[in-house]
Amino acid sequence: MTESRASIRVPDLVRLRPIGEPDLPALFEFHADAESVAMAVVNPRSREAFDAHWQGVLKDPTIIARAITLDATLVGNISRVHRDGRDYVGYWIARSHWGQGIATRALTLLLREVTTRPLHAKAASSNLASIRVLQRCGFVITGQHFAPATDRFPACEETVFVLA
Ligand SMILES: CC(C)(COP(=O)(O)OP(=O)(O)OC[C@H]1O[C@@H](n2cnc3c(N)ncnc32)[C@H](O)[C@@H]1OP(=O)(O)O)[C@@H](O)C(=O)NCCC(=O)NCCS
Fold it and tell me: Separation of 98 CA from ligand 1 center, angstroms?
């Protein structure tokens, strides 16, 4: 018997696929959203800086960058990057799609694809939704500290995580 469409949960429709240049305009809009920027506690990039950053990401073989799709529609991105000798995960969901379990599902899918451990993550301590996503996926808090401002991030209290 075919499962009725109405009984399919949103997280079941989430998939990951490689990111391509055609995704960049939509991703820029997601990342430029003021509420999202405030939640993540980042300094937004200009369109030119965003494109330059992502063109570098797409060419970097050490980065695993995935588009998050919901029923084939692009709704965010998730990555594993190698930085300062550690592997970090990070993600971003379009604000119109928050609160439906998409980040939790996307991180679950990435953790199936990326099997190396440990994996690390950082979130502003005010970003309770991201902290919840990480904890639901098994990451544990290893510390909290004041992170001074950088070009990319305003100063903030930061929580650090590891998945061993
Ligand atoms: C953080 C973010 C990725 C969450 O995405 P999402 O798809 O809405 O997340 P999910 O729906 O999978 O899960 C969110 C969880 O946080 C919880 N949550 C949401 N807002 C919360 C709040 N203010 N306080 C506590 N928990 C909160 C939800 O209840 C949910 O937990 P539950 O499933 O146990 O109920 C998304 O809001 C986002 O992209 N924000 C901007 C960019 C960003 O912050 N990226 C992460 C940088 S570290």
Answer: 7
In ligand 1, which atom is closest to the CA atom of 122?
48
Residue 40, domain member (yes or no): yes
Q: Which residues contact 154 (CB under 8 A, 6 or more apart)?
A: 41, 42, 43
- Please indicate, yes or no, if residue 19 is contained in any of the structural domains: yes
The answer to the question of residue 163 being in a domain is: no
Neighbours of 161 (CB within 10 A): 23
The count of domains in the chain is: 1
Whether pTM > 0.90 for this model: the answer is yes
Domain that holds residue 36: 5-116
pLDDT value at 33 more than 80? yes
